[in-house]
Structures are given as structure tokens and as C-alpha cells.
Design brief:
By secondary structure, the protein is of the alpha+beta class. Helices cover 31% and strands 27% of the residues.
Length: 474
């Protein structure tokens, strides 16, 4: 090969390398620009919805959502998975925890709900992190009879005057009560002191409280007792959050009849099968709806009430990855939203000299509940920090980004609205109080949101708004 041919081969190789490098660089740059382009919005709206709420979503699409401009966008937020357990087979309808009532012979069920364990040297050393539990919230999954109420016997040597009560959680009415004193220490069984009560029936699916009236003179944090709590074959579901090493002081002696929960379990498989067929059909319809309207965001969680805080945070994470927005509005699929009035308010919200701004109608000194749909067992204060009504509230981009940054470390409380109040108490946002965000099903001409609407009511409000600029009436 001549020198000239060698030179030509070299030049061809260099040109080919430059050409390949140029093409790869431009293709990669083009791909990156396409992948990382975020939609610029003034207002992003997250509408919490359930898979089966087809009519609610249709009503919103044909009413206030149709009034959005090109800088506003809304998504219906739905969990991508369903609870496979029929609601009747769950602890309650708000979560996805299986009702674990187990078929047993009555004699095999533990009658004293508490066992006192012998202390080991290791457990004597490890005292940190132990809580003394004076109060137990629980739900009953099959009728049971209370024969005696009691306490850990060792407690009476420290505090002889003790009262133990059972209350209905909803009303807080005392349905049974016993007292211990120096003169009457009760009967000792299995290291627990008991006093008898007239037969008290704890009814299936009701919630109760077992508590010691805590008037102790000093703390019992050094109380050297180990306890194990029993669920009586799954009949008792304890709602109080307990750690393995907590010391439980109140107890009760139960009489359990198995007939009821034997019958209860016979239809469990049949109920679950029918339920799974139903939710499969709903998901098929939901897929068609999502493909048609392109406004449904499926997030990685089970779609039940207790997962609403998760759904909200996952929406913020997705929103951060895919858009650049100045404000985020959260609402529900039974709410009418007045976008025209909200737009005028956003300009004022931008002028607020604060890093964190939150616009809503805020509930203050809201009592923490221990029963029902809003039962809270993680937050231990008596009242919640201020939180915005769920019908509609707006946060600025700084709060939105803070939520995304801290999402993996935020604890999920019983609902998304109270969770937001607890989370954001850490940054002390400026709360822009505005009662036009309605907390209940009431309507004024100036309402920014109206909650608790049937789809037909949503359409009626929209028709009034179009005709008279007043959603309430013409």
C-alpha cells in the first residue's frame, strides 16, 4: 500500500469518526431535550378520585374542568391497585386489612387478653423506648361477653386506688367500670387483678375503649413488667399503636362464643370472588376512560381511604417530574371549583412576601378522633395543627417542592388534609385564610369551592354559573 493510499484511509477514518460523533451527539441531545421537557403551568389541579366514580369525573369534565385555559391542567388521581378483600371481610371499609377472625373451639380462646411474662436480664437492661399503656382502643369482630375487668397486679403495689372502665368509643359512655383499693384488691389470676362485672356484651363491628383512669402521682416508666396482648382469635382488633416492649396495664376477662364467627367465615371466599370480579370490570371501564380522556393519573398504591395521603404525595412527585407549575390545587371529585375567581386570587397570592404560602379555609383546634372513619392513632396530641378543608386549597411551588423533597420521610396520618397540616407545621407557611373555600355543602356567589355534590348537582351549579355568573341560583 502506497503512502498516498495510507493517508486516504486515515482521512476516511477520521471523517467517519467525526460524522459518527456528530450524529450521536445530536441524537442524544435531541432525545434528552425531548425527555426532559416539562410542561409549563400556572395552576396544576389534583382531583382525588376513586376508580368507580365514573359519573363524578364525567360531571367535572363537562362543567368546571372545561373552563381551564392552556396554563391550567387537571388530573384525576387514582390508585393503580384495588384491595382484593371484600369490604365485609376487612377490619373496616377504610383500609385493606383482612379480618383475621380464626375458627376455634371456645375453650382454646384466651380469656384473659393479657399475659405477664417473666423478666429476663436483657429486658431489665433495655428500658429505653418502653411506653406505659393506660388506654386501649379496639374494634370487636364478633360478639363477646366481658366477665371481669382488671389490671396488672403489680400496679396495685405502687398505686392501690385504680379505676378501670370500658367505654363506647363513639359516645364515650362508660358501659362497665370497676375499682380497686387497699381494702379491695380483687382476685388475682395469672398475675392480673380482676373485679367482676355484670355480663357486658361487646357488639360485633363496634369500637370500644379499655382504660385506666390515670390519676397516678408519678410516672411508671421504670415499671418492671413485660406484657403480651392477645386478640382472642382475631376477634379483637387493637387500634392503638403498640410497640413490642410497651407495658400494657389494663386487661379484661372475656367469654367468647364461636358460632357467630364460624358462620361469618363460611361466605368469605365467595364474597371475595364476587368482589374481585366487580373490581376487574371497573378497572376495564377505567382503562377505556383513561385512554379516551388522557386525564387520569394512576399512582402506585392501593385505592382505599387510608391511602389518601400516599395518593397526594405521589401526585406531587409525578407533577414535579413532569411539569413546572407555580401553584398546585388539591380537590375531590365531588367538588365544584370556580376557576374564574381562583385566577384573580392567584395574582394576589404571588405578591405575598413568603417562601411558603397556603391558600384555603383552615380548620383550627380540630379534635383528634379515636374511632370511626377519621380514627387517628399515630398523632398523639389532642388537637391537630391547622389544616385546610379538603374541598379545595392551593399551595405555592415552594411548598410543592418541599413535599416532593421530603416525601419519603413524611409519616402518613389518617387523612390527606390533616396530614398536610401536620407536615407543613414544620415550615410554618403563611396561611391565607379565605372562607370562600367551602368546608360543607353550602353555596354563595363568591364560593371558590363547593363540596359534597352529586353529579347532577355539579351540573346544575355549572348551568347556573354559565347563565347568571352565580353557581347557586339564577
Amino acid at each position: 500500500m502506497t503512502t498516498l493510499q495510507s493517508l486516504l484511509f486515515f482521512l476516511c477514518g477520521v471523517c467517519t469518526s467525526f460524522l459518527v460523533h456528530f450524529l450521536l451527539t445530536n441524537l442524544t441531545s435531541s432525545f434528552q431535550n425531548q425527555s426532559w421537557t416539562k410542561e409549563n403551568l400556572t395552576l396544576a389541579i389534583g382531583i382525588l378520585s376513586a376508580p368507580e366514580n365514573f359519573q363524578h369525573r364525567d360531571a367535572i369534565r363537562t362543567t368546571w374542568k372545561s373552563n381551564m385555559n392552556n396554563k391550567e391542567k387537571a388530573w384525576f388521581i387514582i390508585g393503580e391497585r384495588d384491595c382484593q378483600i371484600h369490604p365485609d371481610n376487612r377490619i373496616d371499609r377504610y383500609g385493606c386489612q383482612k379480618n383475621n377472625v380464626r375458627v376455634q373451639h371456645p375453650k382454646s380462646i384466651k380469656e384473659n387478653i393479657l399475659t405477664i411474662n417473666a423478666l429476663t436480664l436483657k429486658s431489665k437492661i433495655k428500658k429505653l423506648g418502653r411506653n406505659v399503656i393506660y388506654k386501649l382502643n379496639f374494634k370487636v369482630k364478633s360478639d363477646v361477653y366481658v366477665k371481669r375487668l382488671g389490671v396488672v397486679a403489680a400496679l396495685l403495689s405502687e398505686e392501690p386506688d385504680v379505676t378501670v372502665d370500658i367505654l363506647e368509643a363513639w359516645t364515650e359512655n362508660v358501659i362497665a367500670s370497676v375499682k380497686f383499693s387497699e381494702m379491695d384488691t380483687g382476685i388475682i389470676i395469672e398475675d392480673c387483678a380482676f373485679q367482676p362485672v355484670s355480663d357486658v356484651i361487646l357488639m360485633k363491628n363496634y369500637e370500644y375503649i379499655l382504660e385506666i383512669e390515670n390519676n397516678f402521682k408519678y410516672t411508671l416508666s421504670n415499671f418492671e413488667v413485660e406484657t403480651t396482648l392477645h386478640d382472642c382469635g382475631g376477634i379483637l382488633h387493637y387500634q392503638t399503636e403498640l410497640k413490642n416492649r410497651d407495658i400494657i396495664l389494663p386487661t379484661m376477662w372475656l367469654k367468647v362464643y364461636s358460632d357467630d364467627h364460624d358462620r361469618q367465615l363460611k361466605n368469605e371466599n365467595e364474597l371475595n370472588f364476587k368482589w374481585q370480579e366487580q373490581i376487574r370490570y371497573i378497572r376495564q371501564q377505567l382503562k377505556f376512560e383513561a385512554d379516551t380522556y388522557q386525564d387520569i393519573l394512576l399512582v402506585d398504591t392501593v385505592d382505599v381511604y387510608r391511602k389518601l395521603p400516599v395518593k397526594l404525595l405521589l401526585f406531587h412527585k409525578w407533577l414535579f417530574e413532569n411539569t413546572q407549575t407555580k401553584f398546585v390545587l388539591k380537590t375531590d371529585d365531588d367538588c365544584f371549583i370556580n376557576l374564574a375567581l381562583i385566577r384573580s386570587g392567584l395574582s394576589e397570592l404571588e405578591e405575598i412576601d413568603s417562601t411558603f404560602s397556603w391558600w384555603g379555609n383552615f380548620r383550627k383546634q380540630w379534635l383528634v378522633q379515636g374511632h370511626g372513619k377519621w380514627a387517628e392513632f399515630s398523632y398523639t396530641a389532642d388537637v391537630y395543627p391547622s389544616f385546610a378543608c379538603g374541598s379545595g386549597n392551593i399551595i405555592n411551588v415552594q411548598i410543592h417542592e418541599w413535599l416532593v423533597k421530603n416525601a419519603d420521610d413524611l409519616h402518613m396520618y389518617q387523612g390527606e388534609d390533616v396530614s398536610m397540616g401536620i407536615w407543613l407545621s414544620a415550615v410554618s407557611p403563611v396561611r391565607v385564610e379565605d372562607q370562600r373555600w367551602q368546608c360543607s355543602n353550602s353555596c354563595t356567589r363568591e364560593s371558590l369551592s363547593i363540596p359534597e355534590l352529586h353529579p347532577t348537582d355539579m351540573i346544575k351549579h355549572w348551568q347556573n354559573f354559565q347563565l347568571c355568573d352565580n353557581p347557586c341560583s339564577c
